[in-house]
Amino acid sequence: MAKTVWELDKAHSYVGFSVRHMMVSNVRGVFNDFDATVHTEGEDLSTADIVVTINPNSIDTRNSQRDEHLRSADFFKVNEYPEIVFRAHNLQHKGGEKHELQGEITIVGVTKPLTLDVEISGPAKNPWGNEVIGVVGSGSLNRSDFGLTYNAALETGGVLIGDTIKLNIEVEFVKKSE
Fold first, then answer.
1. If one looks up domain 3-177 in CATH, what number appears?
2. What residue spans define the domains of the chain?
3. What's the rounded Cα separation, in Å, for the pair 119 and 134?
4. Sign (positive/negative) of CA torsion 105, 106, 107, 113?
5. What is the structure's pLDDT at 151?
């Protein structure tokens, strides 16, 4: 069976996250520079070979001072580790549009398993006659598992930055070839 290539439609895609701030609210952010490649056997998504690359230098939390700190040696060490990479190897159908996507994510040179709950819509035809699929994903990881342990104790107890990072992903792919 021929391989199908699905190309990321960056104009209709988003990679975001949130983390607890001062034990009372959440800070949200996005990565503005990312890419993904998906190869399948025909249109069988269960055979998907998925690689997502994220440029941590493109982090945007709507606060330039915080973003610079996140790029520093306290966090993403962007000069030493210019990519975050997620490689997915197992997509399990859970009914309807619901799936579970399992793989490994590498952040600052540390690789750990990551499971995402995903909803896959399509395939459908866009107004230009191209076949497209949409994927909405969510999951979480602990930043301390990757050695990202910078923090500050609060006078009232607790810490400045939570350990759990919630991931929010919305991506669209266009079928390019078979």
1. 2.40.128.110
2. 3-177
3. 8
4. positive
5. 76
